[in-house]
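Predict the structure of 50S ribosomal protein HLP, mitochondrial.
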Amino acid sequence: MAARFASRLSHVGRSVFGGLGNISSGSLRTSLDSTWNNFLSQQQRTFIQMRTVLKVVDNSGAKKVMCIQALKGKKGARLGDTIVASVKEAHPNGKVKKGEVVYGVVVRAAMQRGRCDGSEVKFDDNAVVLLDKQGQPRGTRVFGPVPHELRKKKHLKILTLAEHIA
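Done. Here is the predicted structure for 50S ribosomal protein HLP, mitochondrial.
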């Protein structure tokens, strides 16, 4: 789809402004480049979906996990949703091993989420806290900021372990 979008933009540039001089085609190219960069930046801010790699922000032993399935919703997971993930990188002496299938709660997401007061919360990375079968955190510490929206999703234990609540 991205290639088709780029080909349409370049086709429009040739057919409409093909007879004009180099100055106008240069300004058209810069506007097309800025449009393309804007399009790419919008594409990066999506749901946590299948094959999304997330950073693990607890001390359970895993470093990175890859989402296998979001347990709620068709499009994917957002802040506070539970996912099923596969461990891709792990510390050698951790509780979790590479290749293990685990449950996790999304505590940071790059996609913005609106709050009741009209503000929006958005993080720089996608992060998860690993859970056991009973829904309790596997680690004893949670690093980095955690949004207070987890309170609505009944993840109070994660909020008590967190060092900073955003």
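Helices lie at 2-17, 22-44, 156-161.
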